[in-house]
Amino acid sequence: MSSFDVVIIGSGPGGYVAAIRCAQLGMKTAIIEKYSSLGGTCLNVGCIPSKALLASSHHYQELQHFADHGIEVSGDVKVNLEKMIARKQAVVDQTSGGVKYLMDKNKVEVFEGIGSFESATTVKVTKNDGSSEVIESKNIIIATGSKPSSLPFIKLDKERVITSTEALKLPEVPKHLVIIGGGVIGIELGQVYLRLGAKVSVVEYMDRIIPGMDASLSKELTKVLKKQGMKFYTSHKVKSVERAGDVVTVEAENTKGEVVSLEGDYSLVSVGRRPYTDGLNADNAGVKLTDRGQVEVNNHLQTSVSNIYAIGDVVRGAMLAHKAEEEGVLVAEILAGQKPHIDYNLIPGVVYTWPEVAAVGQTEEQLKESGVAYKSGSFPFKALGRARAGGDTDGFVKILADAKTDEVLGVHMIGARCADLIAEAVVAMEFRASAEDISRMSHAHPTFAEAIKEAAMAATDNRPLHV
Ligand code: FAD
To answer: Which residues form the Pyridine nucleotide-disulphide oxidoreductase dimerisation domain (predicted)?
Structure first.
């Protein structure tokens, strides 16, 4: 029987990063993945393919602004969806190949098959051809991720009533895509097809889209997306989803009991994701799950069994690739006897629409609810030279700082390149910077990052320079 210091089940950003760090720290490491392509949800059917399609559709949308820039395009410009999706797949294949390279480079042994516990120290790997082998390990990390969830009355046929996985490889641009759930995944994929020419309607149970983020970001994103043509039905509860041939009818009821019936040719169900432990046989090892199906862990990501850890989407907290990665590193370092730490308050959240939406720390709603006295400073991108030069003037940066100490408590932004700009806010908050600290740092001109400095100036003595 092969024997290891650590075996990781699942090769998503949590699992493969944990494997690399364990190997770097001198552990004999193996990783088990049931699919032939490494990288998990993120690389195969999540972050990377969705960003590839967002990039392609963004290029297409940009064409509409070429004339403003004095660029004349003659002849037809058409979308070749098949080619766009093939390009996306090439990006995925290359990235997954990169993970395989990293496993080989770090001498991590890769087992292809379904990993299931035999005991707290042995895992059976069942391969596609039905054959199996049992491997043994001192420590085991569960990194089995998540799968799309649905509503009990919805029949997902994966053809017309689809999840994000199918939305990444549609055979045609929908005429009318009805999206159930206005969270990050629904809105990002909605914008892809909106740009490609689909009518897109979003039905959301809460009173606003991207409900987990600061309300000011939801408001601005809704405004911009409405301008682009997206339709919203917020505070609407979906009652039924019926398919007849190529027509999908979604019925939803608002808070006054009025029913709206939306007829589309595709409906994307993006109501969240559920932790995935099917086939893991966690019971055989004595690993406890929570009522919500997550693997139960303590602050060190240790399960109810002391040599078994769990990370990423399968445990509590934000379902984000970079959160899973941090947890992978943390567990590897704990196993090596180190004392790592993650500040979960400083895990940024990003929506990769254009304009991009990004945030870190506390929202205004959270600060109000916890009774923290705070001050707020905002700066609009339209007042920024670089934004005007590029023609990307939608959005703003908002900084929330402690009313007494001036420590930055939250940074919320929507606008061009915010997915990258948020890193400045994370660094500042990691070092417990005050808004005044940020306002005193030189930011290159002209850049989008100047909006952060100006928002910090607005938060301290209301002294922005350019509004
Ligand atoms: P996963 O990536 O889900 O990987 C788990 C792996 O375990 C899978 O490969 C699975 O096959 C394998 N596995 C499961 N059970 C077994 C078993 N018993 N034996 C062997 N293998 C097993 N996050 C971001 O941060 N940024 C984004 O832009 C972003 N975009 C997204 C877009 C979409 C459309 C979706 C669906 C998700 C997106 N996410 C994004 C979320 C991100 O993909 C997840 O948070 C991340 O993949 C979680 O990583 P993980 O390692 O916990 O699990």
So the answer is: 347-456
User: Are the C-beta atoms of 317 and 299 separated by less than 8 Å?
Assistant: no
The answer to whether 240 and 258 are in contact (CB under 8 A) is: no
Q: From atom 36 of ligand 1, which residue's Cα is the shortest distance away? A: 46
pLDDT beyond 90 at 76: no
From 59, 65, 300, 445, active-site residue = 445
Answer yes or no: 236 catalytic.
no
H-run or E-run covering 40? helix 40-45
The pLDDT tens digits of the residues spanning 418-457 come to 999 999 999 999 999 999 999 999 999 999 999 999 999 9
Helices (H), 247-339: 282-285, 321-335
Residue closest via CA to ligand 1's atom 52 equals 312
Distance CA 295, CA 298 (A): 10
pTM (global) more than 0.95: yes
The ipTM, to two decimals, is 0.99
Q: Cα separations (Å) of 353 from 40, 75, 81?
A: 22, 28, 19
| Rg, C-alpha atoms of the chain | 24
Contact 425, 411 (CB under 8 A): yes
